[in-house]
Amino acid sequence: LWSGLWYTRAQCLQNEQTLVDNLLRNTGFEWTGRDTRVLSVRSANGDPADVVRSVSVNEAHVGNRVDLVCVHGFGQSGVGCFYASLVGWGSLGRVHLVDWRGAGMSGRPRAAKFAPSNEMEAIEYLVDGLDAWRKQVLGENAKICLLGHSMGAIVAAHYATRHPAQVRHLVLAGPAAVLETDPRLVAEFLERAGKTRATLYKAVSRAWTAGVTPQAALRLLPFDFPKKIINGYIKNRWKAEEVLDPETLRALAEYNTGVLMMPGVSEKVLSLILQPIGAARTPIAGVVQALPNSVPVTFVYGEHDWMDPKSGQWVAEQMVRAGRKNVSCHVLPNAGHYPFIDQPALVHEIVKKAWQECDDR
């Protein structure tokens, strides 16, 4: 009855293999899926299920010295989030899609209680997972071109702050929590919304604050309703039906359903890092502006991104006025919160430039 009981991690790993095999069919690219134990970091808990999952493509490439590492946003996974750009990026060099610790296709440690209880601890938990992966898979001194999407951009920005010597370029795609949300805008929305919508907003805000996540609500739905909802989103929002063959489309829907239906662990960071509903607790503008000159920064938005492209433009302008010459912000036409899905060709050129400059330095 309850669809959340159907998805084991073993089954979801099989879904991953089916999807990636389909996405890379006839490209000649090899890929490797890895589980990397979270070790030798402050938040390591010793649970053998505390592993970071990654999918690496074209590791045999020898034309560049720096690898591209991509971090997905909330409620996503690397392959599910970046499926439309994977082949293009793979043609440029070694690509690693690294899932959040405790989310995506990463392990779901049950023996060790989810430790973070505040914003900084939650960020450290995710940054530690990424760093444990980098050290073990790429090497202690490996340099990377780091791309983060949405809440993954928060992780990427903090990672670059803590490990600037390892990040050759920081790409923030549709980043969350760049600037503070003006409380007057929320008040104006509630005034215009009407009683029903205002009540719904307040109810969702209370649930958000209490730690309830969209995935938790999805898991309560019976039968195959979750899969239908996710399939509809993939077809209607991502327009995946227009670019994928039926077999790959089904694989993408099954894969994403499994990712969301597996037990939640680090999805609990949602209410720790963001206020209702998606507002910053601590904006990352200051984090990005404090990065050393050795870390170039590129913002990428769709013009219809609900994260507000003006925030990234403002930060880039402030950094340029402060004397930084290696900061830019791109706002792409006919695109929303997933610019690498809505405009993969344009994002490809932006990532290509950023990545190549890593090797030129």
Description:
By secondary structure, the chain is α/β, with parallel strands linked by helices. 44% of the residues lie in helices and 14% in strands. The strands form two sheets. The protein has an eight-stranded mixed beta sheet, with helices on both faces. It has a two-stranded antiparallel ribbon with strand order 7-8. Strand 5 (144-149), helix 5 and strand 6 form a beta-alpha-beta unit.
Give a quick summary of the entry.
The protein has 361 residues and is of the alpha/beta class. The chain is built from 15 helices and ten strands.
Provide tags for this entry.
single chain; 361 residues; alpha/beta; two-stranded antiparallel sheet
